[in-house]
Every structure is written in structure tokens, then in C-alpha cells.
Amino acid sequence: MEKIKMSTPLVEMDGDEMTRILWQMIKEELLAPYLELKTEYYDLGIAHRDETDDQVTIDAANATKKYKVAVKCATITPNQARVEEYHLKKMYKSPNGTIRAMLDGTVFRKPIVVKGIEPCVKNWKKPITLARHAYGDIYKNTEMYLDKPGKVELVYTGEDGSEKRALVQEFKSPGVAMGMHNMEASIESFARSCFSYGLDTHQDVWFGAKDTISKTYDARFCEVFREIYEKEFKEKFAQAGITYFYSLIDDIVARVMKAEGGFIWACKNYDGDVMSDMVSSAFGSLAMMSSVLVSPHGYYEYEAAHGTVQRHYYRHLKGEETSTNSVATIFAWSGALQKRGELDQNGALVSFGEKLEKATVAVIEGGKMTKDLALITSLSEPVVLNSREFILEVKKELEAML
Ligand code: NAP
Ligand code: MG
């Protein structure tokens, strides 16, 4: 078979530990034999980030702005232990945080559904995609512990010298207080990303907030969503036969539990943090969750939702066998290749990406899987494979499809 050609490179961001090992195997066994794989390579492994004072992360984000599609391996976000382990010059910020801040946008997380790994919510028949706003609210808050009576006020000082004041609370005894914010532009881009992704994937968009209680803050989110929907998306949604639905967050949660899935659930930052863990664990496993950052400027960055699987890596270093699930990392590649193919009108590349996903799913549905899935599958007597064996099974399946 002739190798499939690519006209534009993918931005490739390599990463750390066990996922870096899987990354290499996936490229060698599942991609390079079938594609003239064209990538612009950035090594975001912790050693190279340290060598470049993290400039490589910024360069990789800029390359994503240039080429529009990136695929990223999981990376270490250093804490004190990592600084000592890798003798780092400093405790670098999360690469995902740096990249998100540069590309702007929303993170979409979707479970990879296979027969034999059943969601524990029995009526969930289709995946639920979580769209998490990635800026502000309590993640950029300022808070205080107040150890004695006093008054807390919210004070705004305009550049023109104007002032707005609101009483938060008269404290008669100790307490806590917090200030947080969001930006109109960020809320707008969140709304646009959700609606665009709904159109892209042909799914309804649900959004929940608490505007009955938060009559200005959450209410502004609702208004921005409604305005952007009415102005820019209503007609396109009607043509596509999909809908936008807003309700209170508690009502949305209740409806999600009773729904059959197949929609996008837009969540404010904190709600998205909490709900994405609920949704992913209810669907089976973090290792079966794909993740894509969609920027309002038309940039896409694909990754796995899980981390570098550190504990497996230490076993690998000791020469022990590992059974690490590569599905989410394979889907990061297949997603990026399909998007690249779509933008370049390269049908062969799109079709390759689809087949790679089908082959991966077929291996698991055929009863062969890594240990994490074998523990939760409803299939009887699953065959447990090690990290490389699983990828080789996918290769066999893929070859039969090509
Ligand atoms: P993790 O890598 O997601 O792994 C946590 C545990 O979940 C593993 O020990 C393993 O359980 C299980 N697991 C996760 N992915 C798996 C897979 N593909 N196959 C099989 N089992 C899997 O999280 P972590 O250990 O808390 O974090 C490790 C590093 O990853 C940290 O340095 C963190 O900063 C980084 N991280 C990066 C990203 C990212 O780049 N997007 C996201 C999260 C964390 P068992 O050990 O029980 O088998
Ligand atoms: Mg979390």
C-alpha cells in the first residue's frame, strides 16, 4: 500500500513518562508505516522544558496558531517533588495552562464508548461531551480569612476615577471572604466554541448556570450565551436540526442523569472541573476519555484526558511489564489527523483516522484489552495485554481495514 500523504504538518508536542513511551510506540507501529507523517516536533518533556526555560511550550503554542492543529502527549506539571526529581531550575507552570492562555478557548472531553465497558448510568447510550470554560471564577480568585469583626466591601475603581462599592458582609465574628471575576471576551469565546463544536459534531448544546441566585455574574454568562446564539448560531442550528437549551445547573444535572447522552454539556469552570470527573468515571475510565481544546480562532489541540501514568513508568524503568491503556493517546492522534485531513480536504487522511479509531474499539470489543479495562469489563474472560501487545493488536486490526 502506498503511504498516505500530508500537505500540512501537525504540531506534535511530545511529553513525559509512560505516555511518552506509548507516544513512540503509536508513531512507530500505527502511524509511520501507513502515513508520510509530517509533523513539526516540539519536545515538551520536562527535561527539554527546563533546558529552554519553558520557551518550547510557547513555541509549540505559536506553531499551533500557525498550523491550526496540534496533538499533545501528557506532560508533567511540576510540583516540589518533581523539581527535586528532575533537578529543575524552577517550578514551571502547567504546559496546558500556558497553551490554553495563548490559544484561548474551551476544553471538550468526550468518553470513548465501547461495548463491554458499560456506563454505570444505565440510560446513557451515547457519549456526553463536557465543555469546560477554562478561564477565571474561583481558579483566579482572591480570598481572605478574617479573624475579627469588621466590614468587607467590593470596590471597583474605574480608570476614569469613577467608583462602585458594594457591601459583602458586616462581620460580627471571624469568617471568610472571596472575590472572583471573569472577562466578557472570555465568556463570549466560551459560548462561540460551544456552539461551533455543536455544529461541527452535530449535537445539541446544553448550558447550566445559577442565574436565579447570581443575578449579575451567572446572569451575564446566560445573557452572553443567548445573545451570541441568537445573533450568530440560531439559523445554523435550525438548518442542522440541533438545539440550544439553557436551564439552571441543578435542573441540568437532574436531566443529564435521565438523558440518553449524545449532547454537549457546557459548564462554567468549576462545574466543568467537578462534572467531568463524574462523567468520565461513570463512563468507565479516564483512560477512555478524549480531550480537545477548541479555540474561537479556529485552532485545535488534541490530547488524552489523563496524566503521564507515573506509577506505570517507574515499573517500566525497573524493566517490569506494564499494561498501560493507550486508547486516549491513540484517539488524540486520530482526532488530530482527521481534523488536519478535513482542513486540507485530504479524504484519505480523514478515513485513516476513522479506521484507526474503529480498529482500536474493535480490539477491545473483541475481548482484548489492558488491565484497567479488564477489571471493569462486562465481557467474560477478557484477554489482558501488555502496553505493546495492545498496540500490536490494533495494528493487526488496522491492517485488515486498510
Ligand atoms: P495519571 O497519570 O492520570 O494517573 C493516575 C492513575 O490513573 C494511574 O496511576 C493509573 O492507575 C490510572 N491511569 C491513568 N491513565 C491510565 C492509562 N492510560 N492506563 C492505565 N491506567 C491509567 O495521574 P497522576 O499519576 O496523578 O499524574 C501523573 C503526572 O501527570 C503528574 O505529573 C501530572 O502533573 C501529570 N498530568 C498531566 C496531564 C496532562 O498533561 N494533560 C493531566 C493530568 C496529570 P493505577 O496506577 O492504579 O494503574
Ligand atoms: Mg479536577
- Major β-sheet profile: 10 strands, mixed
Please, how many helices?
A: 14
What would CATH call the class of the largest domain?
Alpha Beta
- The CATH architecture name of the largest domain reads 3-Layer(aba) Sandwich
Helix content: 40-55%
Mean pLDDT across all amino acids: 95
Encode the helix/strand succession as letters.
EHEHHEHHEEEEEEHEHEHEHEEHHHEHEH
Describe, in plain words, how this protein is organized in 3D.
The chain has 402 residues and is an alpha/beta fold. It has three domains: 1-106 and 297-402, Isopropylmalate Dehydrogenase (3-Layer(aba) Sandwich), CATH 3.40.718.10; 118-140 and 182-283, Isopropylmalate Dehydrogenase; 142-179, no CATH class. Helix content is 45%, strand content 21%. It is built from 14 helices and 16 strands. The protein has a ten-stranded mixed sheet, sandwiched between helices. A hairpin with a 5-residue loop joins strand 7 and strand 8 (163-171). Helix 1 (17-31) packs parallel to helix 14 (387-401) and helix 3 runs parallel beside helix 5. The radius of gyration is 23 Å and the shape is globular. The N and C termini lie close together (8 Å). The model has no long low-confidence stretch (mean pLDDT 95).
Give a quick summary of the entry.
With 402 residues, this protein is of the alpha/beta class.
Write the layout of secondary structure elements.
Layout: E1 10-14, H1 17-31, E2 39-43, H2 46-51, H3 55-67, E3 69-72, H4 80-85, H5 95-103, E4 106-111, E5 129-133, E6 142-146, E7 150-157, E8 163-171, E9 175-179, H6 184-201, E10 204-209, H7 217-240, E11 244-248, H8 249-258, E12 263-267, H9 269-283, E13 289-294, E14 300-304, H10 310-317, H11 327-343, H12 347-365, E15 368-369, H13 371-374, E16 383-384, H14 387-401
Parallel strand pairs: 1-2, 1-3, 3-14, 5-12, 10-11, 10-12, 15-16
Antiparallel strand pairs: 4-5, 4-13, 6-9, 7-8, 13-14
Helix pairs in contact: 1-14, 3-5, 6-7, 11-12, 12-14
The structure holds NADP nicotinamide-adenine-dinucleotide phosphate and magnesium ion.
